[in-house]
Amino acid sequence: MKWTNRGDESAELDALFRAYRDALPDPDASANFMPELWRRIEERQRSVFFMGRWARALVTAAAVLSLGMAAYLYIPHGRSSVFSMESYVEALAAGHAQDTPDLPDSAGDEL
Amino acid sequence: MLVDFEIIKRAQAGDAPAFNEIVLAYRKRTLGTIARLISRPEDVEDVGQEVFLRLYFSLDQLRTAEVFEPWLYRLTVNAAYDYLRKHRRRMESRMSDLSEQQVMLADAVAGGRVDHDLRRRRQISEAVDAMLSAVSEADRILLTLKEVEGLSLKELEKIYRVKENALKVRLFRARQRVLKAFGEAGHEPSAKGAAKAEI
User: What pLDDT digit, counting tens, does each position of B106-135 carry?
Assistant: First the structure.
């Protein structure tokens, strides 16, 4: 009888689980449990503290670098700078000096 | 609750004696649960300390008293799961892997110096450990909490934050796998012999 066997096995398994519970009762902690726990807590706190300090230092360095780069880009550096003070028309004229047609000197002849 | 919520609040505020009080109240029970979840007595304290370490650093997230115990169970389950994943049990225990205590015990068993009760406990523990290795670490923990620790589905629902029906399905499948392993162990005297001796 397969079902009966399965039922028997299930009951046996339950009994084994109960026996396992009894075989492993709640153990008493050793005398070293609390000191060791606090040592681990303090060790973790130290590492968290140092990681925090490193993170803050890194953020500060990144902020300083960003400000430096912004200042560098903002301050004009000669005529080639994008922040050059010349007007758009002057810049255009300078850029297209070769495009200006050479007018013949005939205007004076007509007069 | 084994401690007042006031003590938990004091511990949240950084009061070390209050935290000690919580650990002392829950230590024995937590170590017992871990012992049955991992089946390795020599590592129980280490995993237990990891549980309370995690508790210390996450205590400030706790808002209400009624979630404290399921939450501590969750920390226990997570620490046991991490341990089991790191130390996947090998079915054949080699002497080089045994702790000093286990070697002494093995010697004592061989020499017939150990008493019957200790030998029987060891036999049961090994049989259950071998059977539970038929399922994943997560299912092993779930099954142990239900069948060995005797937690109800409602309690498991709070610990796992999973619907009861999903837990039932998972438990059923895990139990079927363990039952199959148990049936196969019928040829070996350790598992069934240990079970029959208990009935």
Answer: 555 555 656 788 888 888 888 898 888 888
Q: What is the pLDDT of residue B94?
A: 43
- B161 and B132 co-located in one domain: yes
Top residue of A3, A5, A10, A17 to mutate, by most chain B CBs within 10 Å, is: A17
How far is residue B104's CA from residue B100's CA, in Å, rounded to a whole number?
6
Q: Read off the CATH number of the domain in which B101 is found.
A: 1.10.10.10
Query: Does the global pTM surpass 0.80?
Result: no
A21 vs B36, B45, B49: nearest CB:
B36
Tokens standing for residue B115? 């008493």
Q: Is B3 helix (H, G, I), strand (E, B) or coil?
A: coil
- 8 Å CB contact of B150 and A10: no
Q: Looking at CA atoms only, how far is residue A21 from chain B in angstroms? A: 6
Torsion angle of C-alpha atoms A66, A67, A70, A75, degrees rounded to 10 = -150
Tokens of A46: 């130290």
Residue B147 is which amino acid?
A: E
Rounded Cα–Cα distance for residues A41 and A36 (Å): 9
Q: Which of B88, B120, B149 is the C-terminal boundary of a domain?
A: B88
- DSSP letter assigned to residue A29: P
CA distance B96 to chain A (A): 24
Chain A interface disruption, residue of B2, B27, B37, most A CBs within 10 A: B27
